[in-house]
Amino acid sequence: MNRALGLGFLAFLVSIPFWIGDQYLLHILINAGIFVIGAMSLNLLLGYTGQLSLGHVAFFGIGAYTSALLSLGFDVTTFWGGELVVGPQPVWLSFLAGIVLAGLAGWFIGRISFKVRGAYFVIITISFAEVTKLVALNWVDLTEGPMALISIPPFSVSIPGIWEATFYGKTPNYYIMLAIGVVSYIVIKRLVNSRLGRAMVALRENEPLAMSVGIDVTRYLVLAAVVSAAIAGAAGGLYTHYVRIVDPDVFLFIYTVTMVIMVITGGKGTLAGPIVGGIIFGVLPEILREFMGPEAQWVTYGAVMIAIVMFLPEGIVPALTRFWERRKESRDASDRMITGRAASSATETPSE
Amino acid sequence: MRRWIRSLLVTSAAAGIGLASAASAADSIKVGVTQPLTGAVAASGNYVTNGAKIAAAEINANGGVMGKKLELVIEDNKSNPKEAVVTAEKLIVRDEVPVLMGAWSSTYTLAVMPKLMEYGVPMVVETSSSGKITTSGNPWVFRISPTSEMEAKSFAGNIEDFGIEKADMLVVNNDWGRGAADEFSGMLEANGVEVGVIETMDASAQDLSAQLSKIKESGGDTLFVTSGVEQLTLVLKQANSLRVPHRIITTGGSQSPSQLIEQAGEAASGSYHVLFFAPWFPEMAPNADVAQRFVDQWNENGYNAAGLTEGFRGYDGIKTIAAAIEKAGKAEPEAIRDALWNVKVNGVNGDISFIKQGPEGRESGQNIPNVYIVKIENGEIVKPEF
Amino acid sequence: MDQLLQHLINALILGGTYALLGIGLTMIFGIMNVVNFTHGELYTFGAYMLFFVVMVLGLNFFVSLAVAVVLGIILGAAIEFTLLRPIRGANIDTTMLVMIGAWIVMQNSEQWIWSGIAKSVSTPFPSDPLVFGPISVSYYRVFVFAAAILLIVGAHMLIHRTKLGKAMRATFQDSDTAALMGININRIYTATFALGSGLAAAAGALLAPVFVVTPTMGNIAALKAFAIVILGGLGNFKGATIGGFILALVEEFGAGYISSGYRDAMGFLLIIAVLLFRPTGLFKQAERIG
Predict the structure, then answer these.
(1) In the sheet where B272-275 sits, what is the strand order?
(2) What gap in Å lies between CA B236 and CA B247, rounded to an integer?
(3) Nearest to C197 by CA among C9, C11, C45
(4) Exposed site from B53, B256, B280, C176, fewest CB < 10 Å?
(5) Contact, A215 vs A43, CB < 8 A?
(6) Of A123, A124, A302, the CB nearest to C108
(7) Which fold has domain B149-275?
């Protein structure tokens, strides 16, 4: 049932460029999709391990900057005096490097910050994002600082000397986004359904207990952070080669908050949650644009966030799933009255 | 629940249709405007937009362009280069405007420029001063504001008047500030003036006492400051309280001396300002009648008088665009671009026309504007005594 | 040498307001276990209220300062009452998410009401500075420093010399036992949050005439407050006071002698270093990790 729903949804997503017509709407969908990928990666930390990481945008930005810099080429005076010159690299290689570097940053920050919990963890992650932003702002030699990196090449494929294609248009970028989104989804799904994923959930539910049964807490958390950061880095690379400009504002705290809102609205700790939340908050601003100024919109989002945390703490997806199941159960119950067939109220874990 | 969803769908569909019908209105010519209407430099963006509205109203009152109404489609780039790209994309792809005006800061303009190439739409740049804009080989860019280099060159004639021997600099950390620091320090050194320290400040920085303490020690006689009016207010106030002995000269053309007097009070006294329009002395402008008319209309609309020094850019920009459309005879991007090379407009700043800059074959258009210097003295704006 | 002295004075003056910002935040964390993301917005609120009362209503400057602080206290109490009381006992992440929501609502409301254009507030103090040899400092900043110190000492006295303060300290040590001893925990929480908010509003109002008032001025202030609180150890009153001065010193000298661009980065690097090597802050005090 869920698998059919998922494939149906995917087929719908694949079909969109064929009938949408309005290129601007496609642009909105690509932007929303990039944020959905970011939200999915954040969900791995926030939803599955239960760690409120508020510096997530740092990984997104590191992915974006790495990919942009490598594809543009750069030369920079290193700390030890020499000069490092790197020529422009193919976009796919830069993109992969961005993922790797973001993952490394995730490992590093994981090693540091998982020593502490709660408020300390939150503040250390925020600080990390702020420091990366200030480095991007002030290391002008490398990052161009507030002048932003511009004219970043778009995604392209080539068979050297024979054929090449550069993807300026919306449709190819949409499919690239979709492909990366699907791959990220599968990676996350595999991960949370593995032994590792069960360990992560165990530790979210009861850390002392998880430790006592021999789960190496820090190791699992760091691993989750690496995967999460790498996917966020992929979203950053995607962003950079689509928008083709990157400036230190990609590190703004409000972007992390946007991802957090997507995750908790959709349902943290569920695979579908960030997708639902991401689509809502990725598309809503465009619908509301005609009726409300940006401030009024944000006031609304803030209020929605408070309301969800207070009244629907699990988020939309688990609430809908429950609603659905209850309806099915009552229908099954009436069926049973007639046929006597036992209803299989196969209540899957909410993580489906 | 279901009814609710349906009504939501209906409203959003209606909104979509509304947009579509607005887009197909054929009795008007659209001009896209992207300006920072919110965020760090919102004040300036709003002033420029006000000036643009005055120009559009004036044009429409006189029969429009080619008998059609000029319609401004104004988008907020939120003082952010990424949003500048998003707004340009929206204006070009969704609103299908044949020409743009924007995007205030050099950083936002540089960000938008690849989109102009990609879609082939010309843009009149009304404020930005970075040299890169017209030298990078983008044939869709036409700038009416001066570059930092032009500003610095025109200042060279005043070095003697001021008797500058050693100068320090405090600039905002972006294309605009750094560009100004490079050009002014180069110009000063070429004219035998020693350049002391060059300090930068983050665009959002509020406490500048560390930079100013350093400048105070440098022993220069003049401090050149380039930033937006909010930060200049802070620089003047804090320089005063730290007793920085320098004569302060602000550059960049976004200073609004009236606002500085209002917000910095006595701390603004004795400072000089390099401007591109001096609304207190419209008779100084080459087209004195145009300048006077603009000032009158600005006041009639009840706009803040502090915004005049910025607002004229929007006016001149839209006037230039309207002249180009009229000349082209059709509202199509390529025709407008070709026509821009031949326009001659009596603007508030002066006569606007474009010369070629940048690599051959892909030149950008650059106007040669006028530069004025005014002084603040005891809460009044005066012409300097030289 | 002259420059050194000037930097030192700048840092001292700045440190007073930093400390004021820090103690409000650290009190709320220590007693309520709430990471208050609205702290920066109360700072902004204080600044706008001062602007409103002085520049729009035209009241006396010193009266207006008091009005701004009182309004900050009322707003703080209202936030505690409507947002935090209903989720009392929820885990720290939940309260953080609610406070982030409140931060978004408050900041954008300010932008909505006041627009993005900066406001400036004038004071009755002379604009010419006080000069001692090579050093100079404006009269108003001296006043700000004195007022900040007075407020810090006042808050300290309130915590250590009054019945309310005693109840606060008891709640801080063990809220369950305090409740058993007949302390009205809800009232203590509201009082704590209101007091912390009042201190933030006071910092904002005091600094409004020094800087310009904008809707986003609270962001950087909030980040600095976090840095100060981490330096001093979460929940540590004295730590936050000293932390405020340390941060101001590091920033001022970092900007003066290393690089002005990295001024704001100093604080965060300091936080990461402290959390790496001394996660409970620079000063010793038995403290649970949230």
Answers:
(1) B194-201, B166-172, B222-226, B247-251, B272-275, B372-377, B380-382
(2) 11
(3) C45
(4) C176
(5) no
(6) A302
(7) Rossmann fold (3.40.50)
> Per the CB < 8 Å rule, is A130 touching C103?
no
Those chains having 3 or more beta-carbon pairs within 8 angstroms of chain C are A, B
Taking CB atoms and an 8 Å limit, are C2 and B217 in contact across chains?
A: yes
Q: Which domain range does residue C66 map to?
A: 2-114+122-215
Q: Where are the domains of chain A?
A: 2-339
Instruction: Give the pLDDT band of residue A336 (cuts 50, 70, 90).
Output: low
Question: Could you tell me if residue C225 is inside a domain?
Answer: no
Beta-strand ranges (E) seen in C99-207 are 129-132, 135-138
**Topology agreement, domain B28-145+290-366 and domain B149-275:** yes
Split at pLDDT 50, 70, 90, the class of B59 is: very high
State whether residue B76 is helix, strand or coil: strand
Q: Which residues pair with B74 in a beta bridge?
A: B33
User: Hey, are the CB atoms on A310 and C86 less than 8 Å from each other?
Assistant: yes
Pick among 1.20.58, 1.10.3470, 1.20.120, 1.10.10: CATH of A2-339: 1.10.3470
Chains that touch B (3 or more CB pairs under 8 A): A, C
Q: What is the pLDDT of residues A78-119, one digit of tens each?
A: 777 778 888 888 889 999 999 999 999 999 988 888 877 777
Q: Using 50, 70 and 90 to split pLDDT, how confident is the model at B86?
A: confident
Among C10, C220, C264, select the one facing B209 at the smallest CB separation: C10
Whether omega for the bond prior to residue C170 falls within 30 degrees of 0, making it cis, is: no
Distance CA A277, CA A32 (A): 10
B370 and B350 in contact (C-beta within 8 Å)?
yes
d(CA A233, CA A239): 10
Query: Residues in chain C with pLDDT < 70?
Result: 1, 261-262, 279, 284-290
pLDDT tens digits for range B110-164: 889 988 988 999 999 999 888 889 988 899 999 999 999 999 999 998 999 999 9
Task: Please report the pLDDT score of residue B81 as a whole number.
Answer: 81
Give residue A349's pLDDT band: very low, low, confident or very high (50, 70, 90).
very low
Task: Assess whether pLDDT exceeds 60 at residue B250.
Answer: yes
What does the alpha-carbon distance between residue B151 and residue B169 come to, in Å, rounded to a whole number?
15
Number of domain units in chain C: 1
CATH of B28-145+290-366, one of 3.40.50.2300, 3.40.1190.20, 3.40.190.10, 1.10.10.10: 3.40.50.2300
* pLDDT at residue C136, as a whole number: 84
Measured between beta carbons, which residues in chain B are less than 8 angstroms from residue C10? 209-210, 213
Q: Grade residue B23 by pLDDT with cuts at 50, 70 and 90.
A: very low
Neighbours of B283 (CB within 10 A): 10
> What pLDDT does C285 receive?
53
Check residue C101 and give its pLDDT: 93
User: Could you report the predicted ipTM of this complex, rounded to two decimals?
Assistant: 0.85
Q: Where are the domains of chain B?
A: 28-145+290-366, 149-275
**Distance of residue B308 Cα from the nearest chain A Cα, in angstroms:** 26
Q: What's the CA gap between B179 and B368, in Å, rounded? A: 18
Distance CA A259, CA A27 (A): 19
Q: What is the mean pLDDT of residues B26-42?
A: 86
Q: Within a 13 Å sphere around the CA of B127, how many CA atoms are in the beta-carbon half?
A: 37
The pLDDT of residue B7: 44
Looking at residue A154, its amino acid is P
CB C115 within 8 A of CB A142: no
Which tens digit of pLDDT belongs to each residue from A58-76?
A: 999 999 999 999 999 988 8
User: Which residues in A lie closer than 8 A to residue C97 (C-beta atoms)?
Assistant: 52, 260, 264, 305, 309
- Residue with the larger pLDDT of the pair A117 and B305: B305
